[in-house]
TrEMBL record:
<keyword id="KW-1003">Cell membrane</keyword>
<feature type="region of interest" description="Disordered">
    <location>
        <begin position="653"/>
        <end position="705"/>
    </location>
</feature>
<keyword id="KW-0378">Hydrolase</keyword>
<keyword id="KW-0997">Cell inner membrane</keyword>
<dbReference type="GO" id="GO:0006508">
    <property type="term" value="P:proteolysis"/>
</dbReference>
<dbReference type="GO" id="GO:0008658">
    <property type="term" value="F:penicillin binding"/>
</dbReference>
<protein>
    <submittedName>
        <fullName>Penicillin-binding protein 2</fullName>
    </submittedName>
</protein>
<keyword id="KW-0961">Cell wall biogenesis/degradation</keyword>
<keyword id="KW-0133">Cell shape</keyword>
<dbReference type="Pfam" id="PF03717">
    <property type="entry name" value="PBP_dimer"/>
</dbReference>
<feature type="compositionally biased region" description="Basic and acidic residues">
    <location>
        <begin position="682"/>
        <end position="705"/>
    </location>
</feature>
<dbReference type="InterPro" id="IPR012338">
    <property type="entry name" value="Beta-lactam/transpept-like"/>
</dbReference>
<feature type="domain" description="Penicillin-binding protein transpeptidase">
    <location>
        <begin position="261"/>
        <end position="570"/>
    </location>
</feature>
<feature type="compositionally biased region" description="Basic and acidic residues">
    <location>
        <begin position="653"/>
        <end position="668"/>
    </location>
</feature>
<feature type="domain" description="Penicillin-binding protein dimerisation">
    <location>
        <begin position="54"/>
        <end position="223"/>
    </location>
</feature>
<dbReference type="GO" id="GO:0071972">
    <property type="term" value="F:peptidoglycan L,D-transpeptidase activity"/>
</dbReference>
<dbReference type="InterPro" id="IPR005311">
    <property type="entry name" value="PBP_dimer"/>
</dbReference>
Length: 705
C-alpha cells in the first residue's frame, strides 16, 4: 500500500515539474521569439532609424507657372524609452516657449493608444510640429541637453498666388482614419485633405527613406551603420501640371468678388478645365501652419460657406440654358423640325395651365426660339413628346426616353471630375414621378422643359453642356490635371462620350445660340475678333432669380466653353453674360482691352446684398444648435404622441372586435339549448393614459431646458 502511495506521489511531483518547465519554455518563446520588445530595445540601444521624408511634387498651371511649392519645416520628435527621467522639463519648456501643463498633456497623449495608434516607446513620436526658424535655432543649440529628443527636417506646402484654393486643396496632419486606411502614414505625417492634393496624394507624396545610424553605449551617434549600406533614400513626389490657366482663374475670382456662385471654363477638345471659380473663396495660404485649424473653424461657421466648392457641389436649376438640351432631344426624336412653329401668347397656355414668357413675335420656329429664349416653344415640345402614343406606347416610356437623352449629355450622375466632392444633380424619370405624384401627365412636369421644376445641375455640368454643343455631340470627362510626371492620364480623361443627339440637331442649336449673341438675349457678349455662341438663363428661385450664362468661342474652332452662375443675380444678362464675355476674351486673346479691363473693374466692385451681413459668431452657432435641439425635442414628442394614439386606437379596435364576436356567438346559439347562463365576462376598461403636455406646457418645458 505504501509503495502505491509513493508511486502516485512521484507521478504528481513529476507532472508539476513538467508543467513548470513547460510554462518557462512557453514564456521564453513568447519573450524571445513571439515578441519583439527585447529586439526593439536592443536595436534602439544600438541603432537609430531616422525617417527621411521626400519632397512633395510641385504643382504648376498649363503654362508652367508655379502654383504650389515646398518650404522647409522642422518637427521635434521624442523616443520615450530614452527620454524618461533624463531631461530638465522646465528648461525644455522655456526653450520651446510652452507650459509645463502642455508638456505633461502632450506626453500623455503620445502614450495613449487611442489618440496615438501604433505607439511604441522605442520609435520616434511626434512631439511638436512645424517649428519656426527662430524656435528651431533656439532648440538646436540646446539639443544635447535633452536626450531622447530629435529634430526631423521636412517640408510644408506654400502657395505662390492667392488663387484656386478649392482646386489645389491643402495638406495637413494625417487623421487616425487616414493612418488606419494606409500603413504608409504614421502619427505626425502629412496628407492631402482637399482638391488636387487629396485626389493625387500618392503620386505627389513620393516614398519615404530610412537612414540607419549607429550609437555607442552612451546613446551618442557614431555614424551610419555599415556606411549606409542598408539606407533607403527617399523618392521625391511627382510634379503635376494642371489644365488651369492661372491668369484666367485670377480674373474669374476678381469678377465674382462680392457674389455667391461659380464659374467653370473647359477646353472642349480635351476636356481640360481652364478655370474653376467658387465664390466666396479663401486664401490657400491660411490653411498652412499651426493656425490652420483656427482658420478652418472660422470658415466653417461663415454662413457664406467659403469652404464649399459651388462649381461641383452646388446643385441649381439650370434655367433657360437647359433649353439647348431640349432642342437637341426634340429635334433628334422627330418631335419638331426646322419648320415647326409653336404659338406663344405671352407664354404657354393650355387646359388652365399658364407658363409665362416675355414679349416677342409668334408663332416661332426653333432657331429664334433659342435666340429669344421662348418658354412656350419648349413647353409645347415636351408636351407633344410625352403625349405621342404612336412613337411611345406609354407615358412612362416617353418620359424615360427623355431621361436617357439627358443622361447621355452628362446630367443626373457625377461626371467624374478628378477632385473630390462632386455632386450628381437631379434628372427625374417616370419612376420618380410615379412615387411623387401617383397620377401625373405631361402638364404635371412641363416646367422641366425650361430648366425648372425637379431638374438640378451643377455649374460643371452646365459648362460641360457648352463643351458638348461646341463638339457637335460628344464630350470628354472634364478634368483638372493635364499631366503627371512619368505617368499617363487615366483613360477616362481621354475617351469620347457621344450623346444621343444628332449632328444636325446640334447645328440647329448652335445657329440659335449665335443668333442669341447677334441680337438676342446675349447681345452684350458680342466681340468683333471672334464668333461666339451663347445662351442666357434666369433660374427662378424663392428669392431673387439666379443669373446664368453658357457659351463657347470661337464657333468654328472652339477653344473655351464656359458656364457662369451667380446666385440671386437676376436676369442672365445682368451678371452671367458680362462675366462670361470677359472670361472668353481673356482666354482667346490672352488679355483684355483697356475698355474691357475697366468693365472688369466695374464688375468686380458690383456686389450683391445677401441676407447675411457678417460671419456667424460662436454665439450664433450655439443659438442655432439650441434651436435644432428644440426642434428635435418637438419632433420626438410628436412621434411619441402619434405612437400612443395608434396603440390606443388598436387596443380599442381589438376590444370592439372581441365584443362583436361574443355577440355573434350568442345569437348563433339554438333556442332549445339548456338555459345555462355563462359567466359574465369582466368589463374591459381602458386605462386612463397620462395626459400629454399641451403645446404651451411643452414650450415652457423646452424653454426651461
Amino acid at each position: 500500500m505504501k509503495k502505491v502511495y509513493m508511486e502516485r506521489r512521484r507521478m504528481v511531483l513529476s507532472s508539476v515539474a513538467v508543467a513548470i518547465i513547460f510554462i518557462y519554455l512557453a514564456r521564453l518563446f513568447a519573450l524571445q521569439i513571439a515578441s519583439d520588445d527585447y529586439r526593439k530595445s536592443a536595436d534602439s540601444n544600438a541603432f537609430l532609424k531616422k525617417i527621411e521624408f521626400p519632397s512633395r511634387g510641385i504643382i504648376t498651371d498649363r503654362h508652367g507657372k508655379l502654383l504650389v511649392y515646398n518650404q522647409p519645416a522642422y518637427d521635434i520628435m521624442v523616443v520615450m524609452n530614452e527620454e524618461k527621467g533624463r531631461i530638465d522639463t522646465l528648461e525644455l519648456c522655456q526653450t520651446l516657449g510652452i507650459t509645463k501643463e502642455f508638456f505633461i498633456k502632450r506626453m500623455n497623449d503620445i502614450k495613449d493608444p487611442r489618440k496615438n495608434p501604433g505607439y511604441s516607446r522605442f520609435i520616434q513620436q511626434l512631439f511638436i510640429n512645424q517649428l519656426s526658424d527662430k524656435e528651431f535655432s533656439a532648440f538646436q543649440e540646446k539639443l544635447y541637453r535633452f536626450p531622447g529628443f530629435y529634430i526631423r527636417r521636412r517640408s510644408i506646402r506654400q502657395y505662390k498666388q492667392n488663387i484656386a484654393a478649392h482646386i489645389l486643396g491643402d495638406v495637413a496632419e494625417a487623421s487616425e482614419h487616414d493612418i488606419q486606411q494606409d500603413d504608409y502614414y504614421q502619427p505626425g505625417d502629412y496628407i492631402g485633405k482637399m482638391g488636387v492634393e487629396r485626389e493625387y496624394e500618392k503620386p505627389l507624396r513620393g516614398q519615404k527613406g530610412v537612414q540607419i545610424l549607429l550609437r555607442d553605449a552612451h546613446g551618442r551617434i557614431k555614424g551610419r551603420y555599415k556606411n549606409g549600406k542598408y539606407d533607403q533614400p527617399p523618392l521625391p513626389g511627382r510634379d503635376i501640371q494642371l489644365g488651369i490657366d492661372a491668369n484666367l482663374q485670377a480674373l474669374g475670382e476678381r469678377l465674382m468678388e462680392g457674389k455667391l456662385g461659380a464659374i467653370v471654363a473647359i477646353e472642349p477638345k480635351t476636356g481640360q478645365i481652364l478655370a474653376m471659380v467658387s465664390s466666396p473663396t479663401f486664401d490657400p495660404r491660411t490653411m498652412v501652419g499651426k493656425l490652420r485649424g483656427k482658420h478652418q473653424k472660422e470658415m466653417s461657421l461663415d454662413p457664406a460657406k467659403p469652404l464649399l466648392n459651388r462649381a461641383i457641389m452646388g446643385q441649381y436649376p439650370p434655367g433657360s440654358t437647359f433649353k439647348t438640351s431640349q432642342a437637341v432631344t426634340f429635334y433628334t426624336e422627330g418631335i419638331l423640325n426646322d419648320s415647326t412653329l409653336y404659338p406663344c401668347a405671352r407664354g404657354f397656355s393650355f387646359k388652365g395651365l399658364h407658363v409665362g414668357c416675355h414679349p416677342h413675335g409668334a408663332p416661332i420656329s426653333l432657331v429664334p426660339a433659342i435666340s429669344t429664349s421662348c418658354n412656350a416653344y419648349f413647353c409645347w415640345g415636351l408636351y407633344y413628346m410625352l403625349s405621342n402614343r404612336r412613337k411611345y406606347k406609354t407615358l412612362d416610356k416617353a418620359m424615360d426616353t427623355w431621361r436617357d437623352y439627358m443622361v447621355s449629355m452628362g446630367f443626373g450622375y457625377k461626371l467624374g471630375v478628378d477632385i473630390p466632392g462632386e455632386k450628381r444633380g437631379m434628372i427625374p424619370n417616370a419612376h420618380f414621378y410615379d412615387n411623387a405624384f401617383g397620377r401625373w401627365g405631361p402638364l404635371s412636369v412641363i416646367s422641366i422643359s425650361i430648366g425648372q421644376g425637379e431638374v438640378n445641375l451643377t455649374p460643371l455640368q452646365i459648362a460641360n453642356l457648352g463643351a458638348t454643343i461646341a463638339n457637335r455631340g460628344h464630350f470628354i470627362t472634364p478634368h483638372i490635371v493635364r499631366h503627371v510626371q512619368g505617368q499617363k492620364l487615366a483613360p477616362e480623361y481621354t475617351t469620347w462620350h457621344h450623346t444621343k443627339g444628332s449632328a444636325r440637331a446640334y447645328d440647329e442649336v448652335i445657329a440659335g445660340m449665335m443668333a442669341s449673341v447677334r441680337g438676342g438675349t446675349c447681345s452684350h457678349a458680342v466681340h468683333p475678333g471672334y464668333t461666339l455662341a451663347g445662351k442666357t438663363g434666369t433660374a427662378q428661385n424663392r428669392g431673387k432669380d439666379h443669373s446664368v450664362f453658357m457659351g463657347f468661342a470661337p464657333v468654328e474652332n472652339p477653344k473655351i466653353a464656359i458656364a457662369v452662375y451667380v446666385e440671386n443675380g437676376g436676369f442672365g444678362a445682368d451678371f452671367g453674360v458680362p462675366i462670361g464675355a470677359l472670361m472668353i476674351e481673356q482666354y482667346v486673346n490672352g488679355k483684355l482691352t483697356p475698355g474691357d479691363q475697366a468693365r472688369a473693374n466695374q464688375m468686380q466692385s458690383r456686389h450683391i446684398s445677401y441676407a447675411f451681413k457678417r460671419s456667424m459668431s460662436h454665439s450664433d452657432s450655439l443659438r442655432l444648435d439650441s434651436l435644432r435641439r428644440i426642434a428635435q425635442i418637438r419632433d420626438s414628442l410628436r412621434e411619441v404622441q402619434e405612437k400612443q394614439r395608434l396603440e390606443e386606437a388598436e387596443r380599442l379596435k381589438e376590444i370592439k372586435a372581441k365584443k362583436d364576436a361574443q355577440e355573434k356567438e350568442k345569437k348563433s346559439q339554438p333556442q332549445n339549448d339548456p338555459a345555462l347562463q355563462p359567466e359574465e365576462e369582466p368589463q374591459v376598461r381602458s386605462e386612463r393614459r397620462p395626459r400629454q403636455p399641451d403645446r404651451g406646457d411643452g414650450e415652457k418645458h423646452r424653454d426651461k431646458d
